[in-house]
Each structure stands twice: as structure tokens, then as C-alpha cells.
Amino acid sequence: MERVVSGIRPTGFLHLGNYFGALRNFIKMQEENECFFFIADYHSLTTHPTPKDLQSNVRNILIEYIAAGLDPEKATIYVQSDVPQVCELSLLLSMNVYIGELQRVASFKEKVRRQPDNVNAGLLTYPVLMAADILLHRADKVPVGKDQEQHLEMTRDFAQRFNRIYKNEYFKLPMAYNFGGELVKIPGLDGSTKMSKSDNENSCIYLSDAPEVIRKKVMKAVSDSGPTEPGQPKTQAVENLFQLMKAVSAPDTLQYFEEQYQNCAIRYGDMKKQLAADMIAFVQPVYERILELREQDDYIRKVAREGAERARESAAKTVREVREIIGIKSF
Ligand code: ADP
Ligand code: TRP
Q: What is the pLDDT, as a whole number, of residue 231?
């Protein structure tokens, strides 16, 4: 059986980008693989959340994982910081990681640009901790969105380097994975190419959004004044609406609006109404389950506790073997 590992940082509620890039794959993959899905709370510390926010965000993601269909009987679901072995593996890996290669990572350069006052060491070593998350369970596949591709390449580099230095094949080389083949990037409602909570809250549809909230956000989505001649290329904002529709609507609905666009007969108001209805139909069952689970504290705690136990077992084995390979022995 193949091993699958992935995580999401608890920085707020999960949106449809997270769902189609990551969570939907988690749910499908749990059926036929040995899966470890965690909440990357150590990683979220790079942005300095308050203790209260951190705690409630972790709980929210745990609830959203389960509400969307992750099954604790099938997959190991845990909180990263409940498995501190990841810190040791990260430290051990870091000895063979070069500062130059970390400084060249696109997500690091982007953070330096965006938050010049908080360029902390955790941001620089982020890909090492992420590699440790993945290698800790010796994963074959890592379901993530397109923006994580470079981090996965680095994980493979670090794994390969370890194998080369210690002349073995201990780590497998994990691949970024999406069920449909290509890694995906879901666009925002504000005309931006990536739905992301860090940019604009209104660009995101959250799994925890009530139907009315979804309707309002979609009706306010950016579009344009419409095509004036057949075959006219779509603007980014309109392309986004079509991509979102492709994610949540039936193929013939998409085809209908595509034809309307091509004939210059499209009315974006109608398209948005349809998109809102399809998004609501898609999100509502998850939304309702979220509301229920928020009341089930004992169950949520039990899932986290049992997941942590299973994850620690797998992690302890890897760390024991890695220590052995490196030559760390207790007297
Ligand atoms: P955000 O960008 O909103 O902060 P995260 O970085 O926490 O989201 O992403 C968690 C997971 O969701 C990752 O696997 C990431 O690739 C995926 N993801 C996030 N946004 C999108 C998107 N717009 N399209 C596809 N996948 C996404
Ligand atoms: N870097 C990922 C993100 O921002 C989160 C993450 C941390 C992760 N560790 C991971 C994803 C390990 C997959 C595997 O979304």
C-alpha cells in the first residue's frame, strides 16, 4: 500500500482552493492508501498568531477535515505539534541543506517582499520542516495544490541527498499529487489567479460559509462588460468565473455558458446566479456538518488524541532508523 502525507496550515477557515487543491484528494486517497493528514501548526507560527487564535484555528481545521469527509477510521488525522519527532528529523535534515538553496525558494522570496519586517528563520527553514513532515512517514505521494510544487522538489532533493550521503535507499522520493493528473490552482472571485485568504477575504468561498454569504460573494465577483465579437479572448476575471464553474457545476451547465460567451449573448448576472446555486449545493452539506461538529468537543478531542498516537508510532520508527543510519547511538 502506498503512503500518503499532507497537511494544511491553520491560518483561518478552509476555502474552495484548499478543498480542490488538497482536501478533495485527501478524501479520495484515504480509501486505498495508508494516509497521514495533519494540521501544520508549527508552520503557521511563522506569521506569529496569538495563542488564542492558534488554538481555535487548529480546532476549526480539524472540524473541517472531518466535515468534508476525512474518516479517522481510514486515515490518521493529527496535529503536527503532537508529533514532536518531526522537529528532530527536521534538525537532522537541516545539516545537509544549504542556506543559498533556501534563500532561492519562491515562497521565501515572496514573504520577504510581503513582510520585510518579519523575515524570521522559520520562514527560511520552512521547506526543511515540510520535508521532515513528509519523510517522517516515508511518503510516496503528497496531495497539494500547484503552489507547493517547488517545496516537493526540495523534499525530493533532501531525501536523495540523505540517501547518497549515507549510501542507502532509505527515503522514497515523494511526488506532489492530484487525483485529476495536473496539480490545480483555483482562482479567486476578485480577478486574482489564486483563491487565497492572505490576499482578499472576499475572493474566497469558505467551506464554513452560510448559503447567503456565498450568494452575496458570488454576485459581487469581478467580471467585465462582456465580449463584443465572437472568439474574443476572456479577461482574467471572466476566465476565473468559468474555472470556478468547471469545479462545482455540471459539464452541460459549463458548456451552456461557454456557448453564450462565444455568441456574445452571455449575461454575467445569470452566470453568477447559477454559479452561486452550484457552489451552495456543493458547500452546504459540509457547512451543516461543520455546525454539528462544533458542538462535539469530546469527539474532536478523541480524533486528535488517537491520530497523534498512531502518527507518533510511525514517526518514532523513522527517527529511530534515521539516527541509526547517521550513527547516533545511545550508550
Ligand atoms: P492559502 O493560500 O489560502 O494561505 P494554504 O497555503 O494554507 O492556503 O494552502 C493549503 C493547501 O491548499 C495547499 O496544499 C495548497 O496548495 C492548497 N491551496 C491553497 N490555495 C489553493 C488554490 N487557490 N488552488 C489550489 N490549491 C490551493
Ligand atoms: N506548506 C503547505 C502549505 O502552505 C503546508 C504543509 C506543511 C504541507 N507541511 C506539509 C503540505 C507537508 C504537504 C506536506 O499549504
A: 84
- Encoded amino acid at 145, one letter: G
Q: What confidence score (pLDDT) does residue 199 get?
A: 67
C-alpha 121/C-alpha 136 separation (Å) is 22
In a domain, 30, yes or no: yes
User: Does 272 participate in catalysis according to the annotation?
Assistant: no
Mutate to test the pocket of ligand 1, among 114, 147, 193, 199 (most ligand atoms within 8 A of CB): 147
Q: Is 18 in the pocket of ligand 1 (CB under 6 A)?
A: yes
Residues 78 and 174 in one domain: yes
* β-pair partners for 4: 35, 141
Over the stretch 218-255, which tens digit does the pLDDT of each residue have? Answer: 999 999 999 998 889 999 999 999 999 999 999 999 99
> Ligand 1 centroid vs 84 CA: distance in angstroms?
24
Report d(CA 61, CA 147) in Å as an integer.
Answer: 20
Total domains, the chain: 2
Residue range(s) defining the domain that contains residue 43: 3-184+297-326
- The confidence score (pLDDT) of residue 197 equals 85
Is residue 196 included in any domain, yes or no?
A: no
Residue whose CA is at the smallest distance from ligand 1 atom 21:
17
Q: Is 141 a catalytic residue?
A: no
Q: Give every CB contact of residue 134 below 8 A, 6+ residues apart in sequence.
A: 5, 142, 152, 155, 174
Q: How high is the pLDDT of residue 58?
A: 98
Running DSSP on this structure, what letter comes out for residue 151? H
**Do 216 and 164 share a domain, yes or no?**
no
> Under a CB-based contact definition with an 8 Å cutoff, are residues 133 and 40 in contact?
yes
- 119 and 240 both lie in a single domain: no
Q: Which CATH number characterizes residue 29's domain?
A: 3.40.50.620
Residue bearing the CA closest to ligand 1, atom 19:
18
What CATH number corresponds to the domain at position 210? 1.10.240.10
The reply to whether 83 and 155 lie within a common domain is yes
| Segments of the chain with pLDDT less than 50 | none
pLDDT in tens, 62-120: 999 999 999 999 999 999 999 999 999 999 999 999 999 999 999 999 999 999 999 99
Write out residues with Cβ below 6 Å of ligand 2.
Answer: 5-9, 40, 43, 130, 133-134, 142, 144, 148, 151
Give the active site residue among 197, 234, 273, 317. 197
- Tell me if 44 CB under 6 Å of ligand 1: no
Q: Is residue 193 part of a domain?
A: no
User: What pLDDT does residue 156 have?
Assistant: 98
192 found inside a domain: no
Residue 4, phi then psi, degrees to nearest 5: -125, 135
What local confidence, expressed as pLDDT, does residue 282 receive?
96
